[in-house]
Write a structure and sequence with these properties.
single chain, alpha/beta, Rossmann fold, 6-stranded parallel β-sheet, 4-stranded parallel β-sheet, 33% helix, elongated
């Protein structure tokens, strides 16, 4: 397996580690490298004529190559004027490379829908995913880990004088605090339920943090929202283990790896339809396009009560659909189809 560059420094600071795979050799791609070209070889190129070194290798293959070639990519953000320009760019790229590809591995239904608009209808586009979890990696939750269900390092802003004595339902957001991630939409939807017993833990940092805190205050839910800042990846387990539902409210997200992570710990999921990972969860976990309708989905989760061990176990079974083993079977199915 060849890669173009190592992990960015900001990812390392957040606790990300270099990928390691049993039986797979990872090597940096060389500037003049050409993939092997035999009928026995299948090459998957990340992106859609992006990543210069990777796609330079693609273009070194002959037009009539004997190997099979696939692109593997998320849908680019296609909202607004810049989105229109991106769509035009991708149509031109598709025109230039489609005759040299055997298929498109698109991330989620979001990816399938996008690449269907830039590629001919006869061109094979397959729904794919970020498969990253083996069955042995799935975390088993011990319900007695924390009686209070407070994540480690919590600033405990959820305690109020009129809080109901029952255990609050815990929503969780993990990610950057930027406009594209749509946390403002989540706060507005939850504000319609301000009289109910819930807590939202927000894990992440970004330029929108202070505006979002002011919004929570204007909406009257500041005592139900806890802000935890950026957390290293290895410390996220305490948040996932105590959350009932992860919410991914993005205006656009090519995938959304927090869905994979949360399912390992058995969390319920609510993801906007602008996230590639939304297609990895049941319809009941897919938020509608209109954010004004989100409150009823949040309320339905809350009314069902905090997650039981059985419910968490069922969600962990769903995580297996995103395992590396499942991904290998999906790729085999595509190649044999």
């Amino acid at each position: 397996m060849k890669y173009e560059s190592g992990l960015p420094e900001n990812r390392r600071r957040s606790g990300w580690r270099e990928a390691t795979f049993q039986g797979v050799v990872l090597e940096p791609i060389q500037s003049a490298e050409c993939p092997e070209d035999t009928p026995a070889h299948v090459h998957v190129f990340t992106g859609f004529n992006t990543h210069p070194k990777i796609w330079a290798a693609f273009h070194r293959l002959p037009l009539n190559a004997e190997c099979r070639r696939f692109a593997f990519a998320e849908a680019p953000e296609a909202r607004g004027p810049l989105g229109l320009l991106r769509r035009l760019k991708y149509r031109w790229v598709a025109h230039c490379i489609r005759d040299r590809l055997d298929g498109m591995l698109a991330l989620g239904q979001l990816g399938v829908d996008f690449y269907r608009t830039v590629l001919p209808q006869s061109f094979p586009v397959y729904e794919f995913a970020y498969y990253d979890v083996s069955d042995s990696d799935i975390q088993v939750l011990n319900p007695s880990d924390s009686e209070s269900r407070q994540p480690a390092g919590s600033n405990d802003q959820s305690t109020t004088s009129n809080q109901k004595p029952t255990t609050p339902y815990r929503f969780l957001y993990v990610g950057q605090l930027i406009h594209r991630k749509g946390v403002d939409r989540l706060l507005r939807a939850l504000s319609e339920l301000r009289d109910d017993n819930w807590q939202l833990d927000i894990v992440g940092a970004g330029v929108q943090k202070k505006p979002l805190q002011r919004l929570a205050q204007r909406l009257g839910i500041e005592h139900q929202v806890s802000w935890h800042g950026a957390v290293r990846s290895e410390a996220l387990s305490s948040y996932y283990s105590t959350a009932d539902c992860l919410v991914l409210p993005s205006r656009w997200d090519g995938w959304g790896m927090t869905v994979n992570e949360a399912l390992r710990y058995g969390c319920d999921i609510l993801a906007s339809d602008a996230c590639g990972a939304a297609s990895a969860v049941p319809l009941s976990g897919q938020l509608p396009k209109r954010a004004k309708r989100w409150t009823q989905f949040l309320e339905a989760k809350m009314r069902a009560g905090v997650l039981t061990p059985d419910a968490r176990a069922a969600n962990q079974q769903l995580a297996k659909s995103l395992s590396g083993e499942t991904g290998a079977e999906r790729l085999k199915e595509i190649l044999e189809g």
